[in-house]
Design a protein that fits this description.
- The protein is built from 13 helices and five strands.
- With 325 residues, it is mainly alpha-helical.
- It has two domains: 4-184 and 293-322, HUPs (Rossmann fold, 3-Layer(aba) Sandwich), CATH 3.40.50.620; 207-286, Orthogonal Bundle (Tyrosyl-Transfer RNA Synthetase), CATH 1.10.240.
- The protein has a three-stranded parallel β-sheet with strand order 1-2-3. A two-stranded parallel ribbon has the order 4-5.
- Helix 7 (122-137) crosses helix 8.
- The longest helix is centred in the last third of the chain and has 29 residues, at 293-321.
- It is globular.
- The chain binds tryptophanyl-5'AMP.
- Tryptophanyl-5'AMP (TYM) binds at residues 6-10, 18-19, 22-23, 41, 44, 131, 134-135, 143, 145-146, 148-149, 182-184, 192-194.
- This is Tryptophan--tRNA ligase.
- It catalyses: tRNA(Trp) + L-tryptophan + ATP = L-tryptophyl-tRNA(Trp) + AMP + diphosphate + H(+).
- L-tryptophan binds at residue 134.
- Belongs to the class-I aminoacyl-tRNA synthetase family.
- One of its GO terms (cellular component) is cytosol.
């Protein structure tokens, strides 16, 4: 029997290359080795302000982009979190095992509370417990994520252990899996690439938009003039090359940057071309799917149906162990 893998993505805008390199590419590479379930986590996305009118569009976009990137729906389940009510039901149970102090220490909560000063709601605080419920509901063992989610998965392990100790062995302790790009920096070169910082390139960016964004991306800030030698070791554009360019290109750019044979514009042009080569097929396939939302909805509905079955069984085991039934 294959181990169960679970991961999720918020429908909070366009899927960006941070999500792609940090998580989605890894999901795709693990499809055959695990029994995989992926969720579009809309209940997580409502913990910050959003427009209800665009939520469905965002869900379809997130699903379509993931499928277009290679999440082959014949080899995994993909579904929308709010279509399986047991996620919130298990969250309530796990809340009773989670000390407030641990949640107060969560880095993402502290960051998001700072960014959303006027809307520090209980959902934002409880976000990691809902994430734990997502994983435990399916007895997930492997959880491929970017580095920013590792603290949440550690918490999931603690909560699983606590449940097992108090009520009886039921949940495996989920282990995180990192990709070779666990933390992609944004085009500002300073912050993690994220939707909220608006420092990203999306997977469905048009070629000219990719170039426009890259042309403004921060490079080695010590390189003031074209003739100054650059230092690829501290250049985020060079780091991005590592994920889109060949080894020989990397080698050449590294040498030619250090000797000022090429400037940042030349270097960015090569990156832009290579990015377009990889992302254009994803963009085309995504648009095809987005223009046929019914087929995407069908896939998501079928996924939710399978998940509801598993979720029901787990909840019945939970209630039974807890003396609730
Ligand atoms: P979300 O939607 O913010 O991001 C989805 C995945 O992309 C990764 N990621 C990155 N990786 C590298 N560099 C970056 N700049 C970058 N930005 C995002 C994230 O680490 C994540 O793996 N809480 C989760 C969603 C979630 C979940 C779950 C994940 C809900 N329930 C259960 C795993 C298991 C989140 O906000 O992801």
């Amino acid at each position: 029997m294959k181990k169960r893998l679970f991961s999720g993505i918020q429908p909070s805008g366009e899927v960006h290359i941070g999500n792609y390199l940090g998580a989605i590419k890894n999901w795709i590479s693990l499809l055959d080795d695990y029994d995989c379930i992926f969720s579009i986590v809309d209940y997580h996305a409502i913990t910050v302000e959003y427009s209800p009118g665009v939520m469905q569009e965002r869900i379809i976009n997130a699903a379509a982009t993931n499928i277009a990137a290679g999440l082959d729906t014949d080899r995994c389940i993909i579904f929308v979190q709010s279509q399986v009510p047991e996620h919130t039901e298990l969250t309530w149970v796990l809340n009773t095992l989670t000390p407030m102090g641990i949640l107060e220490r969560m880095t993402q909560f502290k960051d998001k509370a700072q960014q959303n000063e006027k809307n520090i709601n209980v959902g934002l605080f409880d976000y990691p417990v809902l994430q734990t419920a997502d994983i435990l509901l399916y007895k997930g063992q492997a959880v491929p994520v970017g580095e920013d989610q590792v603290q949440h998965i550690e918490l999931s392990r603690e909560i699983a252990r606590k449940f097992n100790t108090r009520y009886g062995e039921l949940f495996p302790e989920p282990q995180h899996i990192l990709s070779n790009a666990p933390r992609i920096m944004g085009l500002d070169g300073k912050n993690k690439m994220s939707k909220s910082m608006n420092n990203y390139i999306s997977l469905i960016e048009k070629p000219d938009a990719i170039w426009k964004k890259l042309s403004r991306a921060v490079t080695d800030e010590n390189r003031k003039r074209r003739d100054d030698p650059g230092n690829p070791d501290i250049c985020n554009v060079y780091t991005l090359h590592k994920y889109f360019s060949t080894d020989s290109e990397l080698d050449r750019i590294n040498k030619q940057c250090r000797s000022a044979e090429i400037g940042c514009v030349d270097c960015k042009k090569i990156l832009s071309e290579n990015m377009v080569k990889e992302l254009e097929p994803i963009r085309e396939k995504s648009l095809e799917l987005i223009n046929n939302p019914v087929s995407v909805m069908d896939t998501l509905n079928a996924g939710a149906e399978k998940c509801r079955k598993i979720a029901k069984e787990t909840m019945s085991e939970v209630r039974s162990l807890m003396g609730l039934r």
